Amino acid sequence: MIQPVQPQTPLPQLLAPQAAQALHKAFGHTTAKDLLDHFPREHLPHNALSSFAGLREGELASFVAKVERVSSRRLQTRRGQVVDVAVADQTGQEMTMGFFGGFQATRQLRTGTLAMFHGKVRLFQNRPTLTNPKYEVLGRQEDGPADSSQLAGPELEQDKIIAVYPASAMLTSGQIRDCVRTVLDQTDLSLWPDAVPPQIAQAEQLPSLAEAYRMMHRPDTMDEPEAAWYRFRMEEALLLQGLMERRRRLAGQLPGIAAPQQAGGRLEALDAQLPFQLTEGQRECGQLLAAELERETPMNRLLQGEVGSGKTLVALRAMLQVIDAGAQAALVAPTEVLALQHERSLRRMLGALADDSVRMTLLTGSMSAAERKQALLDIASGRTDLVIGTHAVLGEKVHFAQLGLTVIDEQHRFGVAQRNALRQRSRPAPHMLVMSATPIPRSVAMTLFGDLELTVLRGLPGGRSPIKTVVVPELRKSWRERVWEKIAEEAEAGRQVYVVCPKISALERTKAQIQSQLAERFGFEDGQDSVRIPAPAAEGEVIYVDFSRKEAVEHITNDASVERIEQKFAEHPQLRRLRCGSLHGQMPAEAAREVMQGFESGEIRVLIATTVIEVGVDVPNATLMVVLDADAFGVSTLHQLRGRIGRGSTQDNLCLLVTRMPEGHPSLQRLNEVAKHTDGLRLAELDLARRREGNVLGAEQSGGASVLRRLRIVTDAEIIAAAGEHIGELTRRDPEWATAPMLWRAVEQWRLEHDEAEKYIHQG
Ligand code: ADP
Ligand code: MG
After folding, report:
1. 33, 263, 333, 703: least surrounded by Cβ within 10 Å?
2. 391 and 493 within one domain
3. Which ligand 1 atom minimizes the distance to the CA of 615?
4. How far apart are CA 209 and CA 746, in angstroms?
5. Is 210 inside any structural domain?
6. For residue 155, is pLDDT > 70?
């Protein structure tokens, strides 16, 4: 008897050997499920494959055509450029399509490229054309008329709707389509396990798994693929929420340490000596945390608050409550510099309490063997109450006498699995407080921090002064010079300045790298000696800059690095007179400490630094921040950096985002957003909407999300929320999920695989 096709059935049993091999090589597909999960990128109505002759004004058309020529022209009336792509159809008739901006198009569409175009037909000078059409590159064809058989197999004629697959150089969309059909024809999908519990499928009116695959690959109507997508996304959302539910449950089952508040303890002593009132937000969060620490169930909480909102004090108060109850607390920072800064700011807040009644130990990677040994001894023997350090603190070798609370500052470098591992390590399990200054949209928070409850710390102590943010294109020479003058003026007026660089040392580039950047950034072609490119300018203004090849090379290689900027300060007639210091993550701890102290005391006027100053540094006299090569940073980093100024009483705070990018470069949009918006959450949402998920949820921080394939954290926020409710209801009604065995199995499998994988990543 022939075995029915299973999800794990190897493709070579179902397809011709070359096809199976190509699928493996191009996409790594090995099983039937791999292939069926290769979803079409798009579905196009079939009337598509016609010659240009049949195109009607106003209709949505799709057709395959061959690129004949590509050229670009500058817009006179507006900023930017238009890329004109001339294509030919089967009969050799030509059409010219315009791509505004055209950054992608110039790279992907070259003479001889065969592509499917899709868009609304317009008539221009009585000939049909598309503007900014969608397109998919199908392959390259050197000569002859465009050949639509590249797209689809012979059966295509019967289909009303064409599924367009993500293709590769090895496999065209049409070939993938043929493979999918071959597998579908041999498979009884109703036998495949369906993780979506029937009661949820019914409530959501989801198609069955079998139906969904058919609707995706062979839809009868244009609505079917959408229904199928919804079903597959819901399935992932259910897995995700199911996973978080399991993790919360497991974390909640661990025995913890009850730390009741003590009258006359160190927390009271701190409160009594604080030189200021707690903000409303700090008081509220404080009460919440205090109540949770009193319970025996370990607290698992994410504390989110803008830069400067006073999270450190909230954490310190929680740590003192635990210390008062006889346990130890640990504060973990992502870098050594930050650990040092924390130590200093905790000491400042504790004042006379430090060391005397709150015994502190620093634990970082750069300590000598002897110091380290002593520190480990103090921690293990209980001679120390509060440990501050980098994640060395969480290492296997560090044994606490009784760890009651772990505070992790700036969460983004820890993943869910790492937190899980921490919880498992000591018994009773410590309470856990994770602090983040990055505002995160709810759907992302649920994904990255689904194991934690969220608290938002609102308000800023003493209010903050406004910060004006301006994007400075280096291509505008006068603006560029003005930046350096401004630094000198500010410093000479007695204020202080941060100059932030993305790197410590300049990057070495190969000839080929320079060459490709010349082409990409400036549009240099082989043998071309000079170019004229548009510089970013105010709306409605066009400013061109002429570049010789030599100047362009200089511009490209002129990276803003700490070393290069130090050099610049040493040579510049005005800047030379200013007292500067440098700070970056690779300095010896002692040197970093000295520089920080110098800047805090005001002796150092200008701090040239990498993003180590992103968090933790607090100098109210600093009023100007210059971020060089600002395009190298993400939105949230820029926003956090900017939060380092505007802490004093002056209303004149300025943040300059300096960039070498030309007009039209995508990163300018990001910089303009940061300049325009001051609300962190709004920025985070804009940022998320623009980025691909993969970047949002990097492997390290994904906490399960790296397995997500179809769920779009931003656009699917509602599905994720709905799935959360379904899981919540399922769990209430049926705590052991007996009515959803397939879901249970899928979640468990995912959890085990994922946590293993993540542990592995973190152990490096
Ligand atoms: P963040 O939330 O960015 O970690 P910090 O904890 O570093 O913020 O606090 C920023 C500054 O505000 C610190 O200098 C801190 O001492 C001060 N601060 C904290 N709470 C208050 C308060 N209630 N009133 C006045 N200043 C405060
Ligand atoms: Mg902080």
Report:
1. 263
2. no
3. 3
4. 15
5. no
6. no
Residues 501 and 409 in one domain: no
Are 448 and 489 in the same domain? Answer: no
Ligand closest to CA 310: 1
Strand order across the 496-500 sheet: 467-473, 653-659, 622-627, 496-500, 606-609, 580-583
- The whole-angstrom separation of Cα 702 and Cα 695 is 10
Residue 615 CA, ligand 2 centroid: distance in Å: 6
List the domain range (segments joined by +) for residue 341. 266-457
Q: Are residues 601 and 631 in the same domain?
A: yes
Which of 137, 119, 53 has the alpha carbon at shortest distance from 89?
53
285 within ligand 1 shell (Cβ under 6 A): no
308 Cβ inside 6 Å of ligand 1: yes
Residue nearest to atom 1 of ligand 1 (CA): 308
Query: Do 117 and 87 meet the contact criterion of CB atoms below 8 Å apart?
Result: yes
Structure tokens given for 643: 């939060």
Q: Are 418 and 473 in a shared domain?
A: no
* Segment 608-635, tens digit of pLDDT: 999 887 555 678 899 999 999 999 998 8
Asked if residue 279 has its Cβ within 6 Å of ligand 1, the reply is: yes
Tens digit of each residue's pLDDT (9 = 90 or more) over 541-583: 667 888 888 888 988 888 899 999 999 999 998 899 999 999 9
Ligand 1 mutation target, pool 279, 312, 434, most atoms within 8 A of CB: 312
305 lines ligand 1 (CB under 6 A): yes
Q: Are residues 434 and 484 in the same domain?
A: no
Identify whether 240 is part of a domain.
no
3-state helix, strand, coil in the chain (%, to 5): 45, 20, 35
Residue 372 has pLDDT above 90, yes or no: yes
- Under the banding of pLDDT at 50, 70 and 90, the label for residue 280 is very high
Task: Check pocket membership of 620 for ligand 1, CB cut-off 6 A.
Answer: no
Which ligand is the nearest neighbour of the Cα of 617? 1
Are 299 and 434 members of one domain? yes
94 is a domain residue: yes
- Tell me which ligand sits closest to the C-alpha of residue 304: 1
